Amino acid sequence: MNLSDLRDKARRIRAGVLRIAAMSDCHTGGSLSIADLLAALYFHWLRVDPHNPGWEGRDYFVLSKGHCVPALDAALALRGFFPEELLTTHLELDSILSGHACARLTPGIDASTGSLGHGLPLGVGIALGVKMDAAPNRVVVMLGDGELQEGSNWEAAMAASHHKLGQLVAIVDRNKYQTGRTEEMMALEPLADKWRAFGWAVRDVDGHDLGEIVAALDALPFGPGRPSCLIADTVKGKGVSFLETHHMYRLNADSLVAALAELGEGA
Amino acid sequence: MAKGFGDVILELSEQDPRVCGVSCDCWGFLQPLAQRFPERAIEIGIAEQNLIGIGAGLAVRGKIPFVIGMNPFVTMRCFEQIRTDLGYGARNVKVVGGYGYGLMYAGWGCTHHAMEEAALMRLIPGMTVVMPADGFETEQTMRAIAAIDGPAYFANQGGNLLPDQPEEQREFTLGKAVRLREGGAATVLSTGPIAAEALRAADELAAAGKPVRVLHVHTLKPLDAEAVLSAARETPLLVTLEEHTVIGGLGGAVAEVLAEHGCGVPLRRLGVQDVFAVMSGSHADVKRRHGISAEAVVAAVNGER
User: Fold this and answer.
1) Is there a contact between B301 and B210 (Cβ–Cβ < 8 Å)?
2) How confident is the model at residue A266 (pLDDT cuts 50, 70, 90)?
């Protein structure tokens, strides 16, 4: 898929998030910041089969920042895992879409997350299982930056390099906000050095430049026999000016139209 | 002679290529497995949260991991991971309290007491919880939980509860309590190795003309409610004995069944009475101090408080 098509996928993922935000409470900020990354993953890099979500040959994707599932749901619907019209059933009783990533409900989701700091240990376990099978599956864990304050991430980071999990990739959505500014609340910098110190091969990328993202994904793994970390510089709420830096935002009919218009979409 | 944990996990691994072991600084337990299938024995260091997450990830990949740590730490430090990654996730992971059940590390202080292990694990929907009495029950437990699809916890044990009885005559069915003595004066219910004290009390009471039923409840979840209700119908007093807080473990579980069914039979719960246990002394000293002993059972059956 060429870059122009990938940009269109990212735009449609964002539109899906906005439609969800007009129906229910929604973590818009972190969902919009990962839209370009998800477009590149689901339409360029991940080997998945929407008709057989449990396919043994699949690449695994773990959304550790599980509250940003609206973007993942939008990407999965767009990729064909379930009909797009189901997106607006988010949070409804007996919907297949929960407010946090739920493997028991949603086709294409491998790990139930929502409590932060759980995804990377899960990803390490999946990668160890794949290594046991000497299989080529790749494992991607997407982490929030504020989430890295949870110590369990660093237990897992240590184990991943110790066990030489070259098929494991951590993507950090470095949008620099949690409920406030991350560097003010609990500083993470120098973040790349921290990952390097734990034995990972690290690259930085502009998380909204699909050309850069695709080039970085195609360069994986970044070091032989080592887990790879991609730190994506992103903007919380990217794509809609009045949603930037907001953690959650409930849209009404008017603000939905205005937000979609900024994306170049009709309501 | 019952096999130990290391030999049973090796046997299970030979039978099923999905079985593997993950150690949280308990590498000795995985030695036989590591020698036979090095790729299926994984050490992850002192990191309980990571242990459970890795177990869940292995299960996502279709493996059947036994993840092993020290009882107090592998049930408390990573409780949320067990509850969320294994319970909510419905993952086929077997959590093993490898050593340090109950008050075993008595004099090492309360950091090393696992007097909440069964209560915590019992809280989690879908979790199977087993407190074997000895090596035989541990071996049977491992085979039984390997055969079910879902998360389980058990506290590893060695030793032999019934040295006079050949193992092939013993019964073990997951979820089914075992009647070890018959008698009508009371029913003494036990879980874990403290069953030995229940038997000692029963023998003493029988010699004094007050024979009691001993019902050994190795599986705390799912609980054998029918066996509890039979005891309530057929004997005038129930006494629970456990090396655990009386809240939420065997005593709590039995109380729930009795109350829900309006049994009205008196219940005495012997165990740690909502306090932290004493911090120094031998294992026997600490159990005795907290009334977790044959003497305490005899006193309870005799109506002493």
Assistant:
1) yes
2) confident
Nearest to A72 by CA among A34, A44, A111, A29: A34
Q: Which amino acid is at A74?
A: A
Residues of B in contact with A115 (CB under 8 A): 80, 84
Max CA separation in chain B (angstroms): 58
Q: Are B254 and B228 in contact (CB under 8 A)?
A: yes
Q: Does A171 touch chain B (CB under 8 A)?
A: no
Q: How confident is the model at residue B105, as a pLDDT?
A: 96
Torsion angle of the four alpha carbons B142, B144, B145, B147, in this order, in degrees rounded to the nearest 10: 120
The pLDDT-based confidence of B305 (bands split at 50, 70, 90) is confident
pLDDT digits (tens, 9 = 90+) for A70-121: 999 999 999 999 999 999 898 889 999 999 999 999 999 999 999 999 999 9
Is A126 within 8 Å of chain B by CB? Answer: yes
B1 has pLDDT over 90: no
CA separation for the pair B262, B274 (Å, rounded): 25
**Residue position matching structure tokens 């407190």:** B131
Nearest CA distance, B119 vs chain A (angstrom): 22
Domains of chain B: 5-155 (3.40.50.970), 167-301 (3.40.50.920)
Inter-chain CB proximity A103 and B89 less than 8 Å: yes
Complex ipTM more than 0.90, yes or no: yes
Distance CA(B115)–CA(B259), nearest Å, equals 24
pLDDT of residue A267: 62
What is the CB-side half-sphere exposure of residue B301 using CA atoms within 13 A? 30
Number of structural domains found in chain A: 1
Do A116 and A64 contact (CB within 8 A), yes or no?
yes
Q: Which of left, alpha, beta for B17 (phi over 0: left; psi -120 to 50: alpha)? A: alpha
Instruction: Tell whether pTM > 0.90.
Output: yes
DSSP state of B236: S
- Which of A105, A128, A133, A163 would best serve as a mutation to test chain B binding (most B beta carbons within 10 A)? A128
Measured between CA atoms, the residue of chain B closest to residue A156 is B50
Asked if the Cβ–Cβ distance from A129 to B60 is below 8 Å, we say yes
- Is B116 within 8 Å of B244 (Cβ atoms)? yes
Among B60, B74, B88, the strongest candidate for a mutation testing the A interface, having the largest count of A CBs within 10 A, is: B60
Residues 193-232 of A with CB under 8 A from B: none
CATH number at A111 reads 3.40.50.970
pLDDT in tens, B207-223: 999 999 999 999 999 99
Domain that holds residue A209: 3-263
Using a CB-CB distance cutoff of 8 angstroms, which residues of chain B are in contact with residue A56? 62
Got the DSSP string for B177-221?
-EEEE--SS-EEEE-GGGHHHHHHHHHHHHHTT---EEEE--EEE
Query: How far apart, in whole angstroms, are the C-alpha atoms of residue B71 and residue B75?
Result: 6
Burial tier of B280 (Cβ tally within 10 Å: 0-12, 13-18, 19+): exposed
pLDDT, tens only, A110-151: 999 999 999 999 999 999 999 999 999 999 999 999 999 999
